[in-house]
Amino acid sequence: MPIPYESSLERDFLIRAEHFNCVFEIVPQPVKIPFIGMDGRRYTYTPDFLVYYKLGNHSPLDPPKPLLVEVKPEEDWRRHWREWLPKWKAARRFASERGWVFHINDESRIRDKAFENIQFLARYKRLEFAPEDIRAVLDSVREVGCPPIQYLLERHFMGAYRGVGISMLWHMIATRLLECDISQPLSDLIEVWVSDDE
Fold first, then answer.
1. Of 85, 94, 25, 28, which is closest to residue 53 (Cα–Cα)?
2. How far apart are CA 25 and CA 17, in angstroms?
3. Do 179 and 21 meet the contact criterion of CB atoms below 8 Å apart?
4. β-strands 23-28, 178-179: how paired?
């Protein structure tokens, strides 16, 4: 079921977050936090999302901290910083008491190179390729460790098949059969590895 959002920036936050295998669950408008405003009156504040992470390589004794997130355009939070400070202080305290982290995410944290790459890869997500071709590439990656895309193209997709190979490798990254450092420019020099979830 799609996660509801209230703005294009929130939508982009979700697109970015949902790409990462480490994200376990995203809860929209997860809590109501009481706070005292600048005028001395009582209010409640509802952050936009709570992000839970998979244990991954973390110890069960030191799991990754859930992230309580407010998604706000930079122009808005800069203009209203003083006015909104009490609710954000309350959110930081509320999160800390529960072992969470609170962040305000604006365009600089959301619409970055990783987001640009995720958008680019989206067009390859629904493509279909022969399962035996995908298996052959996965076997090569496991054998080598972290080869660059260029190595896989030369090994499996020479000559006229290079275009098909590029599409298939982008598809494999888009569907997270292969992982890469998504914050780096996507080129045939980027290194890939087999997803832990594969």
1. 25
2. 10
3. yes
4. unpaired
Beta bridge partners of 52: 25
Whole-angstrom distance, CA of residue 195 vs CA of residue 176: 6
Average pLDDT of the chain to the nearest whole number: 93
Q: What is the pLDDT of residues 26-59, one digit of tens each?
A: 999 999 999 999 899 999 999 999 999 998 777 8
8 A C-beta contact, residue 85 and residue 35? no
Strand 193-194 and strand 178-179: the pairing is antiparallel
Strand partners, 71: 105
Q: At what angle do helices 149-156 and 162-174 cross, to 10 degrees?
A: 130
Answer yes or no: is pLDDT of 151 > 90. Answer: yes
- CB within 8 Å of 95: residues ≥ 6 apart: 68, 101, 102
The predicted-structure confidence for 92-115, as pLDDT tens digits, reads as follows 999 999 999 999 999 999 999 999
* Nearest residue to 53 via CA among 106, 101, 110, 125: 101
